[in-house]
């Protein structure tokens, strides 16, 4: 499902180039729940950014379902992210001026392949999947942090992606909510067969994953 | 994604973004409205002032009058027509001399006669031949006229002659149509005068000869009664007078009011300066709007990154920002036009009314011209906003999505 070959990321700084990720080779099977763990600054977010098509690698390739995503054009990469990858971020990533329903519908509206009615029906289904169909009309400021994160998960699932990526998706939530969100993500991965890759520095959460990838100083350690 | 669907989404997001920050949106609209009001009001007032001044300055008349040295003249500040005299000059006298410093030159022929058949028996009538193509002292005084340009069979009547437009007058047996009437000038010759095409006046030669026994010298094609001269910018009356007297024999040069000439030349320069000032104000407003939109886009960096992450193309990011700016600034521009109209109303009450009471004409720009400037102001405001938003949005669309989401600045 997901393959990284020689993936490298180097940042230019005033003190010269700094390597965040160094020649990482990684294979994650379809439907697998994988956790990428490491200390702050170890390069795990940079690795996830390259896997998700958000940050261009300095070197190497990322293959998702056989597609080299960094060989795609800008528009092609945008369409690929829209159709095949879902993101859940560590910040409240909802557009504040849109209702929960419209936030969830956004990826499908960007894709533009479905009728407006079908989009809203599916968005309502996704909200129901995360237990928030009764909050469809609510604006983000009317939702708790945990509810906002659930809406973000519903949005990530809107276009039925094959790959769901989460960058510390529960880092700012209380323990109870964190457990609920993680349980939700695992259920979704299991029930839909979605490949789930989460970045976390919480080893207890990582322990629940089927596969743990340790990264230190930009290198995957065995 | 279909273009219509993409367009709907972009517009919806733009409108929702504007509604999200209502205070800032209102401030932006207000700032654009003030700038638009100043520009709209300034341009309309300026165009009206220029049009009025063109009329007003033209009515000031010529700077110099050139006649035969034997001619008797009645010197006034406003040189509008040459004085009736039998002394003439060669029609090409000034052209042959090729004297520098002349901006405009208008030849005139004047026949003072009591045989024309116009008015009561024995009434003296001044028939003034001029060329509408080169004239700059008679046509500006038209207070009313028929539509279309003056034709060879038309005459213009001085203010003292009270005949309706379109009626027929007969001069030496030939019919002419009353094309226009002049406002009161205070110049006797002009107020009593009947103005006709130069060629039409020459064409009366045979009829005049039949009644008076001779063709007067000013009706000979080779002669004119005199010339009215307007100075080129930066040239003084004395300089040109000296140059003319040195180069053309047998002439008399009459100088008008030097104060009026100075005002005419000074006002032209002042108007140019005011236009530059309006342009500079508009340009500085455009730069301010661009800076404002740069700040707005920087503030929404993470939101744009999020949209890119979930599949928005760079072009859609730019379109959202540009549409948002266009809505806000076009609304500001439209509001500014309304404010500008109110400002012009105040201007009319304060200054135009005062000028009108003093007998100084003020010509407002016509409705079509005003509407065109209003449309340009609204479009210009929208363009300024779009340009201001486009560059930072374009830069943002090209940036790494990960940087937009996680990096500051």
Automatic annotation (TrEMBL), chain A:
Domain ABC transporter: 2-221
Pfam families to which the protein is assigned, alphabetical: ABC_tran
Transport among keywords: yes
Keywords: ATP-binding, Nucleotide-binding, Transport
InterPro entries according to UniProt: AAA+_ATPase (IPR003593), ABC_transporter-like_ATP-bd (IPR003439), ABC_transporter-like_CS (IPR017871), ABC_transpr_LolD-like (IPR015854), MacB-like_ATP-bd (IPR017911), P-loop_NTPase (IPR027417)
GO CC terms in record: plasma membrane
GO MF assignments: ATP binding; ATP hydrolysis activity; transmembrane transporter activity
The keyword Nucleotide-binding appears for this protein: yes
Origin: domain of life: Bacteria
Family as reported in the entry's similarity comment: Belongs to the ABC transporter superfamily.
Protein name, as recorded: Putative ABC transport system ATP-binding protein
TrEMBL record, chain B:
Superkingdom, natural source: Bacteria
Keywords: Cell membrane, Membrane, Transmembrane, Transmembrane helix
Bilayer topology annotation: Multi-pass membrane protein
Pfam families, per database record: FtsX (PF02687), MacB_PCD (PF12704)
Coiled coil: none
Sequence ranges assigned to domain ABC3 transporter permease C-terminal in this UniProt record: 277-398
Subcellular location, record wording: Cell membrane
Stored InterPro entries: ABC-4/HrtB_transporter, ABC3_permease_C, MacB_PCD
Keyword Transmembrane helix: yes
TM helices/strands, residue ranges: 27-50, 269-296, 317-347, 367-391
Domain MacB-like periplasmic core: from-to ranges: 25-243
One Gene Ontology cellular component: plasma membrane
Protein known as: Putative ABC transport system permease protein
UniProt organism field: Ancylobacter aquaticus
């Amino acid at each position: 499902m997901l393959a990284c070959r020689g993936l490298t990321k180097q940042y230019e700084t005033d003190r010269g180039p700094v390597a965040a990720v160094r020649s990482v080779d990684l294979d994650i099977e379809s439907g697998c729940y994988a956790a990428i763990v490491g200390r702050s600054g170890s390069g795990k977010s940079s690795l996830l950014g390259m896997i998700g098509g958000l940050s261009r690698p300095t070197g190497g390739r990322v293959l998702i379902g056989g597609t080299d995503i960094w060989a795609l054009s800008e528009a092609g990469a945008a369409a690929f992210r829209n159709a095949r990858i879902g993101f859940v971020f560590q910040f409240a990533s909802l557009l504040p001026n849109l209702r929960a329903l419209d936030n969830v519908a956004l990826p499908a509206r960007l894709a533009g392949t479905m009728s407006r009615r079908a989009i809203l029906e599916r968005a309502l289904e996704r909200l129901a999947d995360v237990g928030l169909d009764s909050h469809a009309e609510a604006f983000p400021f009317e939702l708790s942090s945990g509810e906002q994160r659930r809406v973000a998960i519903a949005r990530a699932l809107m276009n039925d992606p094959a790959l769901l990526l989460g960058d510390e998706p529960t880092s700012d939530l209380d323990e109870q909510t964190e457990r609920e969100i993680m349980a939700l993500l695992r259920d979704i991965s299991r029930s839909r067969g979605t490949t789930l890759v989460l970045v976390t520095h919480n080893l207890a959460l990582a322990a629940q994953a089927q596969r743990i990838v340790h990264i230190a100083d930009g290198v995957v350690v065995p | 994604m279909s273009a219509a669907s993409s367009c709907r989404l972009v517009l919806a997001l733009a409108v929702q973004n504007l509604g999200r920050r209502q205070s800032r949106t209102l401030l932006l609209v207000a700032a654009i409205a003030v700038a638009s009001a100043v520009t709209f009001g300034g341009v309309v007032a300026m165009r009206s002032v220029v049009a009025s001044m063109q009329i007003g300055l033209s009515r000031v008349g010529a700077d110099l009058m050139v006649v035969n040295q034997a001619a008797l003249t009645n010197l006034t500040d406003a040189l509008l027509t040459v004085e009736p005299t039998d002394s003439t000059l060669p029609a090409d006298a000034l052209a042959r001399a090729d004297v520098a410093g002349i901006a405009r030159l208008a030849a005139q022929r004047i026949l003072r006669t009591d045989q024309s058949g116009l008015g009561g028996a024995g009434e003296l009538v001044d028939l003034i031949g001029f060329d509408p193509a080169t004239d700059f002292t008679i046509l500006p005084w038209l207070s009313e006229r028929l539509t279309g340009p003056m034709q060879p069979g038309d005459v213009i009547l001085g203010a003292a002659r009270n005949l309706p437009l379109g009626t027929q007058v007969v001069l030496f047996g030939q019919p002419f149509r009353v094309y226009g009437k002049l406002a009161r000038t205070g110049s006797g010759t002009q107020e009593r005068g009947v103005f006709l095409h130069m060629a039409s006046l020459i064409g009366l030669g045979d009829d005049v000869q039949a009644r008076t026994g001779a063709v007067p010298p000013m009706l000979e094609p080779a002669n004119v009664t005199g010339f009215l001269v307007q100075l080129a910018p930066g040239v003084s009356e004395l300089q040109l007078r000296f140059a003319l007297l040195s180069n053309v024999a047998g002439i008399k040069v009459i100088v008008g009011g030097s104060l009026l000439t100075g005002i005419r030349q000074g006002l032209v320069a002042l108007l140019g300066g005011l236009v530059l000032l309006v342009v500079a104000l508009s340009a500085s407003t455009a730069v301010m709007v661009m800076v404002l939109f740069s700040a707005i886009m920087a503030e929404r960096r993470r939101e744009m990154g999020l949209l890119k992450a979930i599949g928005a193309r760079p072009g859609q990011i730019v379109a959202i920002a540009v549409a948002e700016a266009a809505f806000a600034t076009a609304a500001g521009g439209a509001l500014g036009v309304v404010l500008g109209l109110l400002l012009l109303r105040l201007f009319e009450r304060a200054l135009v009314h005062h000028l009108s009471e003093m007998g100084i004409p003020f010509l407002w720009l016509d409705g079509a011209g005003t509407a065109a400037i209003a449309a340009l102001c609204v479009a210009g405001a929208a363009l300024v906003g779009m340009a201001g938003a486009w560059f930072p949005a374009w830069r943002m669309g090209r940036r790494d999505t990960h940087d937009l989401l996680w990096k500051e600045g």
